[in-house]
Amino acid sequence: MQDNICVSIICNTYNHEKYIAHALESFLMQKTDFSFEILVHDDASTDSTPDIIKTYAEKYPDIIKPILQTENQFSKGINVTQVFQYSRAKGKYIAFCEGDDYWIDSNKLQFQVDWLEQHPQDIGCVHKYIVVDEDENIQNIKTFGYYEKEERYTLKDFEEKELPSQLASLVCRNIFRNQGESYPESFNAVDIQGDIKIYLYLLAHGSIYRLPQTYSAYRFVRKVGGNSWSSRNIGARKGYQNWMAYQELEKVFRKEYGIEVSLKKRRAAMAAEVVIDCLYHRKGASWSHAWEVITKQDDCLSMVAKIAINKINRKIKGKID
């Protein structure tokens, strides 16, 4: 049995039979001078994902520690990471990687832990990443708009809309169970992308440093109905929902930490998505939502214009190239 676990790797899976072995191998290849554990949670996959996980767990029983659900927890509104993963993470640090993503450098964990050991002011450490499709082809796309500067990232940077990096790049201090610092239950009630809440939570306790190296791969599958997070959300028009969620997140953060955080730019971007959604996808689009965000959100229309200009410029550049 492993003692003195330094890093707990949290890996959540659902119908990732094509990808999960690659993810697990990328964890197992890590070269470290410390012990780590791999906490896999399968949310009642209907494909062969559980069988693949079992095979690896039998081969590496001291490292891979699976939870194989027989009923899907996400569909019940349960935050899998909060309920099943944080509570069993023994590590001083936590690393994240979904079952369809993977790491591409065997020194990733060692480099990031070394950084955090030497820089106590940083709550976490991230790095650059590549984007691949279902066939491992590198995609030259910008998936979410992550922070590009190779420097220290603070709460003020979070207000500007960009996130520090994709979640598979994050290693952070394990404060999720510490008394007085644990992940707030009130965050779970806010219906918005999970890494947004995780990064905001961490930034309440310190800065995040962004390393210049590229150590992980994020899988972005364009095929609708696929089993990656991106494919399941293609065509999902969530601008209005996110616009409302950001307002709630501001209130929750203020109540939990007594710190004012302004997500105005993020809210304006989401409001613009609502309007653009109506312009491009009139069938099923909600004009009442569009009118609400136009009248209630400052800078909504200017953001719409900015997005439209960027689209035109990209098309012109594409023709020139």
TrEMBL record:
Residues 8-150 form the Glycosyltransferase 2-like domain. Signal peptide: none annotated. Gene3D superfamilies: Spore Coat Polysaccharide Biosynthesis Protein SpsA, Chain A. GO terms for molecular function: hexosyltransferase activity. It comes from the Bacteria. InterPro entries: Glyco_trans_2-like, Nucleotide-diphossugar_trans. This is Glycosyltransferase 2-like domain-containing protein.
